[in-house]
Amino acid sequence: MILHPGVLSLLVSSLLTLVMTFAAAGFGVRILRHWDLASGSERQLQLERRTYLVSTIVSYTLGLQLISIFLFLHTVDDLSSLFVGAMCAVGSLSVGSFGYPTLLLKIATFLLAALWLILNHADSRGYDYPLIRWKQWLLLLLAPVILAEFISQAVYFLALHPDIITSCCGSLFSVKDRTMATEVANAPPLPMLALFYTTAGLTIAAGLRFRRRGRGAYLFALLSAVQLAVAIASVVSVISLYIYQMPSHHCPFCILQKEYLFIGYPIYLTIMTTAVCGIGVGMLHRFRRAESLGEELPRIQRRLATVALWSLALQLVLATLPIVSTDFTLR
Amino acid sequence: MAANLERQRHIVDFTVASLLRRKGKNGALLAVYTVIVFLLASVIFFTHALKQEAARVLKDGPEIIVQRTLMGRYSPIPRSYADDIREIGGVQSVRPRLWGYYYDGSFLANYTLMVPDEAPPPGEIVLGSGISRLREAFPGDIVGFTGFDGRPQSYRVQGLLPEESQLVAADLILLAESDYRQLSGIPADQATDLVLTVRNRKELATIAEKIVKLHPDTRPIIRSEILRTYDALFSWRSGVVTVLFTIAALAFVIFAWDKATGLSAEERKEIGVLKAVGWESSDVLLLKFWEGLLVSLTAFLLGTALAYLHVFAGTFWLFAPVLKGWSTLYPEFRLTPFIHFGQLEVIFLLTVVPYIVTTIVPSWRVATIDPDMVLR
Amino acid sequence: MIRAQGISKTFNAGRPNEFRALQDVSVELPFGRTTILKGPSGSGKTTLLGIIGCMARPTTGRIYLGEREITSLPERFLTGIRRQTFGFIFQQFNLIKGLTVLENVMIPAYPLGEKHGLLRQRALDTLELFDLGRKAGAKVDWLSGGEAQRVAIARALINDPLVVIADEPTAHLDSRLSTEFMAIMRRLKGEGKTIILASHDPIVYDSDLGDLLIEMRDGRIVRGGERP
Prior knowledge:
The complex is a heterotrimer.
Chain A: H1 5-34, H2 42-79, H3 89-93, H4 99-124, H5 132-158, H6 169-172, H7 180-185, H8 189-213, H9 217-244, H10 264-285, H11 296-325
Helix pairs in contact in A: 1-2, 1-5, 2-4, 4-5, 4-10, 8-9, 8-11, 9-10, 9-11, 10-11
Chain B: H1 2-21, H2 23-59, E1 64-70, E2 73-75, E3 77-78, H3 81-86, E4 91-104, E5 109-115, E6 124-127, H4 129-135, E7 142-146, E8 152-160, H5 166-169, E9 172-174, H6 177-184, E10 190-191, E11 193-198, H7 204-214, E12 218-222, H8 223-261, H9 265-276, H10 281-312, H11 320-324, H12 341-367
Parallel strand pairs in B: 5-9, 6-8
Antiparallel strand pairs in B: 1-2, 1-11, 1-12, 3-10, 4-5, 4-11, 6-9, 7-8
Helix pairs in contact in B: 1-10, 2-8, 2-10, 2-12, 8-12, 10-12
Chain C: E1 2-11, E2 19-29, E3 34-38, H1 45-52, E4 60-65, E5 68-69, H2 75-85, E6 86-89, H3 101-106, H4 116-129, H5 145-157, E7 163-167, H6 175-190, E8 194-199, H7 202-205, E9 212-217, E10 220-226
Parallel strand pairs in C: 3-8, 3-9, 6-7, 7-8
Antiparallel strand pairs in C: 1-2, 1-4, 4-5, 9-10
Helix pairs in contact in C: 4-5
């Protein structure tokens, strides 16, 4: 293992997150088993107090995961100089088989935690905790994912030794070995761009329809999820090319660096925000019949949709800016 | 939305007033916290800056160094090897180098002696600033060394190496070839090693292979390997310090926990009053959150700023020995200031995050106090 | 009206120091009227006040605020109701030391997110009603007993509650200040507020302010009903 400060701090914070989340899940189980709102008993009061602790823990987990994603990318980028053939984060992540899974799991936990908080917010508006069971089940889903992320990250870092030969993004995304990554990166750029704008447009349309008429929540959620995948694929296969102004630089991580004005951060943040809010709308829609939520639920959904739409609009602006502002062209 | 912002603003106001009301207790916590951040940040800034310096300096080094081994250990290399290595395709130039170490028993220091391309005239030497300081030898003075055969040799100091080169040259002595051979005993047909430049970087591995085939007793070292080794070494060293530090931070975390759980009766009563007059648990949690955040951010900013000054203006006097690893010759130099987000994130994760996490449960305990507590 | 049905409150249930503060208490407190709870210390008056004022939940029994049953509401909603409906004046005043009079009065309204300027003005106006306008910037640590009590009352009124509850309000006051307090209550009653007072001070329970007198002893109601 490489004793790099970034590695150590990531392991420490992942451990903290793991402990916190499992504690929260443990409370969640107890809540599921003994919850009885009408009883007013001492135990019920204690459980109600516990729900505050659980939501605080998940909020902090969310914040921590966000920081940890970016630190992870910085650290592997820093470590790339230790591996022959690696020139940036892509190279480090290709060492062993746990690099990319760790990143994906981190993103997954972030999304799940965000969705949980949306669910929690809706639940707190109802006078009888209408969504309490669903919240605990989602928490029980979140906990093992965080465990998987912790293990994956630990295995990845433990297996890293300097001097291992790996590949850089140039060869990773080259046509020779066809993996998922190369398929994505080598997707024809202009059609990919068209796909990106199309799904974005459809998502916006679905979102506006939902806001205006309250219909099509599931469609909006589905499109948001699709948009997430398409947006990331587009960044890798075409948008990055415009940002780097090079026809073969597909690296999704270099756009997070100073040379490119850190533009990667707002792009990825808007992508995640759109996805979380859009999927949140669909998630909440299932509970629209809950009596105690009444008019609150549609209001929350509308607000989520608004945020999702603004975020998507910003995403489009950020993606289009490099395309129109330089004279680099792929044609 | 606006109401939520106003609510935040009110609660923050209250938090600040509340923190200022207990200056002593919060002041002590802030002081300890700042020191912890300061220590960690210093280490992190320093090692990173060193790595950058080393990389910069080594960037201009030779691409391949060829050494000879005998019985598995280093041994001087025959100068004749250079001739056939020069014939290998892709090799731009081959040059023998002459350098070595010298242990000065009276000062308990190790010097590096080197014969550069433009060597001083026989009888004269150029000293690195560290040696100059140690032996109090300045241009015009005479310094004496003991040769390999026990015979004393003395030289006149022609000049000193510039201050900026301290990182690599503090312990360096430049001298003429004849002087060095006389001092060290290395025969005229041998050199310490050979340095190569190559035309195409991609050929490095192939050329190295060919050299070994020609002369199986040689060991070619590629520059990028050196860089990687330095990198790993600096990371390792700072990793060790980070581990030690984490242990110290644990003590701090225990202190923070103690502070958070051991709320005085008066503080508990105050929260009870807040709850009695209409604050919810979530409001009190928000209060505690802001408290933790304000203290943490202040400590983080203060500690990081002080560390920056300490490392880049104050030359890091606290930790230097551990990290630089030289025994008696400490270069005094200014590092180029360099920070980026990755370092700040590490410092944040190792200091602020554990603190905030330890305050979660105590804050929650206090936030869920029964409102009717003040009645009893 | 506020209706309490079969209220019992047991502290530390099942443990050796188990204590039954209330046993099977049922009362009806009409809006707009003044109710006085009379009884010696330990009779459960304070506990009952806390339960009626939505500060604590009973072990058994139900509370109705108008038509709405509030006993099983989650804390969040209970607190919201309490903020809007009840203003509590504590026996010990419980002002927060180190803060000014004005800040103390504004605190109950902080979570509501009202604009700072508006809230501040309202707080100053309320203080004026009690002749405390010029003391707005003073720290509460330096107030006299009477001033502190008036600040406590002003704080209870900041959210314009329907009901004012006072627990042993005259316990730390001399006769003059006690009479002053009753005068303030009279004024509030005139404004249509519902008032609930708990006291074992004759100045309070003998006054003609109370429409309802409920006598308690050992956690039970021993006599209760309209004042003849």
